[in-house]
Amino acid sequence: MDGPASILLDFTLCIGCGACEDACQEEHNLPADPPEDRLDYRNYTVVLKKDDQYYRKMCMHCEEPTCASVCPVAALIKTEEGPVIYHPDKCIGCRYCMMACPFGIPAYEWHKPIPVIRKCIMCNERVSAGKQTACAWVCPVGACRFGPREKMLAIAKRRIAQFPDRYVDYIYGEKEVGGTSVLMLSGTPFEDLGFRMDLGEQALPELTWTVMSKIPNIVITGGILLGGISWIIQRRMDIEKENLSALDEHIKNQEKGGDA
Amino acid sequence: MTSLIAYWQRLSGHRRFAWITAGFIILLGLVLTYRRFFIGLGDVTNLTDEFPWGFWIAFDVVGGVALAAGGFTLCFLVYIFGYHRYHSIVRPTVLTAFLGYILVAVGLLYDLGKYYNIWHPIVMWNPHSVMFEVAWCVILYLTVLFLEFLPVVLEKFNLIAPLRFMQKLTIPIVLMGVILSTLHQSSLGSVFLIVPNKLHPLWYTPILPLLFFLSAVMVGPAIVILESSLSARLFHRGLETPILADLARFLQVALLVYVAVKIQDLFVRGVVGELFTGEYEAYHFMGEMLCLFFAFVILAFRKLRTNQRWLFTAATLVGLGVVYNRMNVAWIGMLRGTGASYYPAWTELATSAFLITVGMVAFYFIAKFFPIFPELEEEHSHA
Ligand code: SF4
Hints:
A: Alpha-Beta Plaits; 2 domains; 8 helices; elongated; binds iron/sulfur cluster
C-alpha cells in the first residue's frame, strides 16, 4: 500500500446494520454482550444513532498519538503501516494513556485483578498481511473504507464537493490534534454527535516535548551552578574558620606574652 | 509480652487512644489491600474509563510528593548554602522525606494496574513521556534519600570506616538530591500539560511545571516547621525556636514568589474572569488561594510569626493550600472537561489513611531506635 493505512467512515452511507461491530468482536475474540451505547473493555468500536444519523466511535489512530507519547514504557506505539498498537506485557497500568487521549478512547478492565488497556488496534495483523481491517472488509455499503490516507482524504474531499447538500463541510480527523488515520464524513454537524471540535490542530505531544527537551540542560546547568555555589560558600567558611583560629592563636600568644 | 503490657499501662490516655485508632486503621487497610490486589481496582475505587485517575493519584502521589519536599529544601539550605545551624533538624527531615517517598512509591503500587511491572521504565524507554521521567526521578531520588539516611544507620551500629566514606560523599549526594527533586516536583506539573482540553483554564497553564516547583519550594519549610513541632511534642524535646523563626522568613518569601507568579499567570493568560463565574471551579481555586492568604497574614506579623502556635497554624495552612492545589489539578479541575462525576469511594480514602498511618508508625519507631534527634542521642548513650 502507498503510505500509511487509514479508514474513511462515511456516516451518511451507514445503515446501522452493526456488521462492523460483529466482525470486530469476532476478529479480536472480544467478550460477548458488549454495551451498545458506548465503548468499554468489551468492544473496540460501536455504532450509535443520533436523530436519523448513524455514526461510529473508535480509536482515531492519530498521526502523532498522544497515548503513545505519554506511555512511560512504550507499550503503545504507532506502526509504520498506520495502526496504533498495544503491548500488554510491557504495560504497567498507569492509565496515563487514558488520561491523555483527547478522544477518550482507551478502556480499562476495572473488574480484573490484572487489568489491561483495551482499544482498537486497526486489525494490525490483517493490515500488515496486506488485508483490510475486519470492519472495512465486512461493511456492505462502503460506509467504512480502508486505504492509504492520501487517497481516503481525496475521496472525502471529492464527496463533499460533489454533494454539498449531503455533507457538512468538514472532514473530522483531517486536522484534529495534528491529523488522524481515521477520517469521518457526516451529514449532521459533528458537535451534535458528541465529537469534540475544540481539540485544535496542534499535536498534543509537542506540549510536553517543549518542556521535556529542556531537562538535560537543567541538569547540567543546575549541577554546575549548585556545585559552584556550594564550593564557594564552603571555601569562604573554611577561610573564615582559619582566620578565626589564627586570631585565637594570636590572642593566646598575646595573653601569654602579657603573663610573662 | 509482660514488658509490652507494662509499657501499655504507662501510656497516657491520649497515647492509648492514638494506638488503638492506628491499629483499627491498619486492620481495615489490610482488608482493603486484599480486595485491591485480589479482586481489582474496580472493587475499591470509583474510577471509570472517563476518570481513570482518582484520589490515590491526586493525594497519595501528587500531593505526597509535594509534602515530601521538606527534605530537599532543607538539604539545599544546609549543605549548599552552608546554613549549618539547621543541622539538628536535617535528620528528622530527611527521614520524613524518605518515608514520604516510600509511601508515594507504595501508593503507586496500589494504583498501577500491573504493579509488578513497575520496574519496566528502567529497561523500556520512552523519553517523550513525562511519566517516564517521573518514574526515573522516583527511583533515583529514593536511592539518594537512602544514601542520605544511611549515615544514621552506620552511626547506630558504629561502623566508622564506611561512615567516614559516606561523609565525603555528602555534597555530591545532596546535589543530586536537589536536582532530582527539582525535576521531579516540576515533572508532576508537566504530567498535566498533555490535557489542555480536559483541565480547567484556572489551572491549565504552560507554566504548570514551574508552579509545581515553586509551590514545592514553598511547602518545604512549612513541612519542616510542622514536623519539628510535632516531634517535639511526641518525643518531649525542646523546640529549635530560632531555627523555626528563620524558616518562617524563608517560607514567607517563597510564598510571595509562588503567589505572585500564579496570579500573574492568570492575567497573562487572560482567564481572571473565570474567577467570577460562580462555578465550583472558581470556589475551589479561591479556597486554595485563601489558605495561602491566611498563612501570609500570620507570617506578616512578627508577634504571630514568633509564636509557636501561630507559626504551626501558618505552616499547616501552607501545607493544606498546596495539597488543595494538587487535588484541584488532578481531580476537581478535571471533572468538567472529562464530563465525569468522580468522587472517591470511602475505600479509597481508607486505603490512603492506612498508608499514612503505617508511615507515621514507622517514623515513630525509627526515631525511637535510631539516632535521629541530637538530644535523644544523649539519652541513647546514657542508657
Ligand atoms: S496504562 Fe499501560 S499502555 Fe497506558 S500509558 Fe500506562 S503503561 Fe502505557
